[in-house]
Structure formats: C-alpha cells, structure tokens
Prior knowledge:
Blueprint: E1 3-9, H1 11-14, H2 22-32, E2 36-43, H3 47-60, E3 63-67, H4 78-85, E4 91-93, H5 95-107, H6 114-119, E5 121-123, E6 127-129, E7 138-142, E8 153-157, H7 161-178, E9 185-191, H8 196-208, E10 214-221, E11 225-232, H9 238-256, E12 260-262, H10 268-279, E13 283-287, H11 293-299, E14 308-313, H12 317-324, H13 328-334, H14 339-353, E15 357-363, E16 377-384, E17 387-394, H15 399-420
Parallel strand pairs: 1-2, 1-3, 3-8, 13-14, 13-15
Antiparallel strand pairs: 4-5, 6-7, 7-8, 9-11, 9-12, 10-11, 15-16, 16-17
Helix pairs in contact: 2-7, 3-4, 10-15
Amino acid sequence: MTTASVCTIGDEILIGQIIDTNTAAVSEKLNGIGVRISRKVSIGDDPETIRTFLREELLSNDIVITTGGLGPTGDDLTKQCLYELSGARSWLLSEEQAAINREILHSRGLDTISGNVSQAMYPDSGEVILNKVGTAPILVFRFSGEEFPHHPVLYAMPGVPHETLTALPKVIEDIRQHFKLPTIYHRNIMTYGLAESALEEKITPWVKALPADMHLAYLPNTLTGVRLRLSIYDAEDETSAQKRIAEQIEALRPILGHVIYSENDDTLEHVVGQLLKGRGETLSVAESCTGGEISHLLTTVPGASTYYLGSVTSYAVPVKEKLLGVHAETVEKFGVVSSEVAAEMAEGVRSQTGSTYSVSTTGWADAYGDEHEPAGTVWIGVSGPHGTRTLRAVYHNDRRRNIERFAAAALNFLRLYILEGK
Length: 422
C-alpha cells in the first residue's frame, strides 16, 4: 500500500500560536484515494531538524507532504533545506508564478519587493505547481538513486490554510498520476439527535449484517452530529461499490428515520436551507444565548438570501421585551430561560418579519444558571404554520461548545418541525 508522511513546519505551531488545520485536510484527502498515513508530525524552524526529518521520512514512505516554511521572511527555511536535500545546483524562476505574485500584490495596492520575487524561485531539482491564491508555489521533488531507490515524492505546500486547501486537488491529481492506488469508495450518512453510543446500540444488528469488506466509522461533531462513514477498500470498481453501499443505506433508513438528515456530506444549515428553498418558504431567527451563531451558520450557505429574512439577537431582557414582544410577566414568572420565553421570542420575530418559520434560543451557556434552570440549559422555540413548539436540552461543555450545541440542536428541531408539515 502507498504510504505517506505529513509534516507541518514552523515554530508558531509548536508553541501553540497557530492551530494546525492543514494536516487534517491533507490526511483526509490522502485517505480518500487509498494512501495510508504513516505519521503526522510538526517540527520547528531549524534547518538541521528539517533536513534530518525529511530524509528519514523519504526513506520510509512513498510520499511526504510538508506545509509551511515557504514564505519570504528569514524564518522560512523549507525551500533552502529542500534545495540541499535534493542535490540542486541552481535556482530557477517560475515566470508564471512571478506573474501571479505581481497580480496578487497589485490587486492589494502593494508593490512587488525582492522577497516576493524570491518566492517564485525554485530549485532546479524540483517542479512547480502554480499557487493561484498565494505567492509561494507548490514544489514537487521526485527522488531516486542509491539513497532513495523506491522513488519517493515530496510535495512542499504553503502553510496558509486557504492556500493549502486550494492547491490540494492539484497535489492529489499528481499523486493519482504517479502512483498505483487502490479503488476506495466512501459514503457519508449524516445523523443528528442520537449520541454516538446510543446510535451504535440502535444500529448494531445492521452493523453485524454488513459484508466483511465494508467498514463503518463513527465521526461525532458538535455542529453536525454523528457522521457515519461507510467504506469499501480495494473495491473491484467504483460503480459496484457505489451500488453495494447504496443497498446498505437503503436498509438503514427505516431503522433511523429522521435521525438521518443527509446521505451526503451536508450540514444541518444546508439541509434546512434546501427544505425552505424547495418549498418557497422563509425563516427568521431570535437568538439570546447563541449570540448570532444560528444566523451565522445559515448565512454560510450560498443562496441563503432567498429564504433567510433576518434575526434579532436579543441578549438582554429589555430587548426581548421591546423588539420581540416578550411579556415582562412571562420572564418574572417562568424565568428568562424557559419554554414560555422561547415560545414568545419565536412568535415575536416571526410576527415582525412575516417569515413562514422562526426559531429562537434562550439559555445558560456557561457556569451561570438561576433558580429555574441550571447551567448548560437551552430552551428552543420554533413557530410556523402548525403552531409553536419548544424543546429543552442540557449540555455539559465549555461556553463555546455549548453555544455550538445549542445552535445545532435548534437547527435540527427546526428541520424536524418543517418535515412535520410535509
């Protein structure tokens, strides 16, 4: 099996200044084409460490992918180390990358300086994959000879995450062209409403009946629920693998029902948007404890303006009362975190905007609570053509994660409410 090592380079990652998201993205794409990840490592900006580590990884892997260290400043050392490691004799200029760099800088109102010109230079022992969204090209080194008789390939990618993500398909395509890879087929089933352990228990008979060459993974996430990834490795061909997995998903549907919200790699906000768009209906939001998180998620979906009308972030009680029509007596009697307040918030924003549906949240996201509800409690309200519903949920996480869970639970409650009227 083809193996790969993924390495991030930079002191800023080692000391925690920057969170490394590149290795996850790279590893996921490599796994998707049948490359086994043997190691993921972060190393600092030390030339000897970089050279030693990369040599060792090239000796034991078919592919090495690095991110970082290709910038124009003095602490960007990867390119020089690769020059030495690959036995290069001179530097070449990629005229195409240089033209891209000039265009990028001029579009920002900046002049081209020597550091940016040097980024378009590369060792004569390597090749260039153009970086269309940044100034450092992707460098490719194909090793051979006595030291590396198995002909490993090293791809040096920029460390800026959006540049890595943009260039990754080109790197994957190059790997496909130069390595014999197995046929792997994955299918994701997105679920929400059952914890990982409860989900596993519910589908155990189905799992036990899966063919021996079919593998199931549980991938939980606070915003998207539990993704079930069904895979066939070393498939005879993609068409037959697709058909066989589709048959298994067909058997899973009646077991989980509406717990499944997508059979593609979708999000709750995307699925809610599809439901509304397909029916020509609209949505408004009233948020307290989620502080705009639901609105943010909804507006990340392209075309959201066709169904999403707007929101009120009513964090303070007076705002709930003045803008949403929540009654002071309701707050006094039931508490600000209550079914009654969530219902009035949802009804108030729906009335103000004229939307088909509305969703609201009121809760305690962190260590605070009151005599009515403990910390981590959220009340969700949904209002629409078939009345107003509320839902209570309690989570025991930190503030950030609780907010994410509150928002996801609200979107799922809304999804189920919309489906109720279909």
